[in-house]
Amino acid sequence: MSRQLTKQKAIKLHRNMWNWIAEQYENGSTEEAYFLKEQYCRDHGYFNISNECFCCEYDNQVVNKISDGCKYCPLLWGTESKTSDFFCEYKDTGLWTRMWKLTRFNVTIWDRIEAIQIAKQIANLPERPNKQGDIL
User: Is the pTM of this model over 0.85?
Assistant: First the structure.
């Protein structure tokens, strides 16, 4: 991404993308969630986004593209007290890990129902309080 993301812009784009993903599953999509993230970015003109995630892209911007384990992720994933990095992927309880496992093979109607719920939960994660270094 060539233009700089502010924390608020990253959060807005994140929420828009995950609400769109929920809509895709509501409309019967059986695509893997990662593919839907790629499609959203491509269709909206966002290229070279780290992990097709606006939160990852923001974190990388703050730390000058040196991986720090997501310390500047603008959202709270609920796993911050359990791990010091990759909050969205924490073991099998991380929301992104759950979504990825759920949608990577033959998505059934029951998988879609759960995928909708997880996508909406990811879209509405609470914002992390500002800290020194944030791009506001």
Answer: yes
